[in-house]
Amino acid sequence: MPIAAILALAPQFISAGKSLFDFVQHVRETAQQKGEWDDAHEAAFQQVLAAAGQSPQWKPRE
Amino acid sequence: MKTPLRNLLLILSLVCAFGCATLAPNADPVEVRAEQSVSVAFDTFDVFLKIELANEALLKTKAPDVVKFAAWLTERQPDGQPRGVSIIQSANAARRAYKANRSADNKATLAAALAALETALAETNKQLTNAR
Asked: What is the pTM of this model?
């Protein structure tokens, strides 16, 4: 799961009255990766990188 | 600037969470580390650049090294991409090559690409701290 998607879960944990520890624990469980980025994950990641080049924060500084 | 500190703590928590995670059976530690590094690097670079851009005027006088590093990270490379994206793409290409063929050469190439990526990541974390 992309980190951005994991971060998006944080407000749910906070509004549910859970602690940062609970959130980190959830991330830890989610992070039991298999070393198996599939094609869909790779395609999504490439889209994120391509979009980064167009985002204001990634523009060259003057 | 409380938001940068909060973001930094969140990123460090996530890095720790990923770093402490157990591997699934049959997972290749090198490949998993590469996946994690590539994912974490993009999010860290992106958060750093957002903070720097939002506070650029202040940082130019208070912490010019932060602005200088942001310029380095966003400088366009021969492939037309910002340096940060280019570093990530290089590591990801090495990861994919290693995944397709776990040869010693590919492993060495991946290790070198990850070292470059993690050096940039460490500097970003340092500059995020300086931006507080």
From this structure: 0.72
